[in-house]
UniProtKB/TrEMBL annotation:
Membrane topology: Multi-pass membrane protein
GO biological process: cysteine export across plasma membrane
Species of provenance: Halomonas chromatireducens
Transmembrane annotation, as ranges: 42-64, 109-134, 146-166, 178-199
Gene assigned in the entry: eamB
Record flagged with keyword Oxidoreductase: no
Predominant subcellular localization, coarse grouping: membrane
GO terms assigned for molecular function: amino acid transmembrane transporter activity
Protein localization: Cell membrane
Keywords: Cell membrane, Membrane, Transmembrane, Transmembrane helix
InterPro entries: LeuE-type (IPR001123)
Name under which the protein is recorded: Cysteine/O-acetylserine efflux protein
Length: 200
């Protein structure tokens, strides 16, 4: 009964955290516009898979390392910010789809998107709050952690997919190379701007 009572609040929390702008959603918008929704699916499922592992790991003790050792948190912020700036540069300098040659401009793979979650401070904060606030106290801890992490990703799926769909719709309106360059530049700038919120 405790677990069922927590599902509603946990769902509302995940919706509020995953439907709002952030590094993942900005990158999904850019990917949807540049590569289409279907080619962005590995990116979407990579985010979900990476967050599932991260959230479950936090509940099973990984979060204690993050809380007890401030150096780990600082290192994570620096590494995550550096990787985010690299991705921002890749987005900003991506050529329009019709100008790509020799397989350039591939969307993020499942494993790249999954790995990024472990360097994404927002994902850590989201996972820490989720497990601290909504993990049932009774029953098997491992099973509870896996079920809560899985439920959280089910809720997150339509929220983040919406951003990829939004990007796909925008891509249909971009008809000239100049419009594509402006769009990619703006998306790259927004991705880079997320570093400010990570480091502040």
């Amino acid at each position: 009964m405790e677990a069922l009572a927590l599902l509603g609040p946990a769902a509302l929390y995940m919706i509020s955290m995953t439907i709002t702008p952030g590094p993942n959603n900005v990158m999904l918008t850019a990917s949807g516009a540049n590569y289409g929704f279907m080619r962005t699916l590995p990116h979407i499922f990579g985010i979900l898979g990476g967050c599932f592992l991260l959230f479950a790991g936090i509940a099973l003790g990984l979060g204690l390392i993050f809380e007890r050792y401030p150096l780990v948190q600082t290192t994570l912020r620096i590494v995550g910010s550096g990787y985010l700036l690299y991705l921002a540069w890749k987005i900003a300098t991506a050529p329009p789809p019709d100008l790509r040659r020799r397989g350039e401009g591939r969307p993020l793979s499942f494993w790249q998107a999954a790995a990024f979650q472990f360097a994404n401070p927002k994902a850590w904060v989201m996972g820490l709050a989720l497990m601290a606030g909504f993990l049932p106290q009774g029953g098997d801890t491992v099973m509870n952690a896996l079920m809560l992490a899985g439920f959280a990703e089910l809720v997150a799926l339509p929220c983040i997919a919406l951003w990829a769909g939004f990007g796909t719709a925008i891509g249909r309106w971009l008809q000239t190379p100049r419009a594509w360059r402006i769009f990619n530049g703006v998306m790259g700038g927004l991705t880079a701007a997320c570093v400010y919120f990570i480091l502040k």
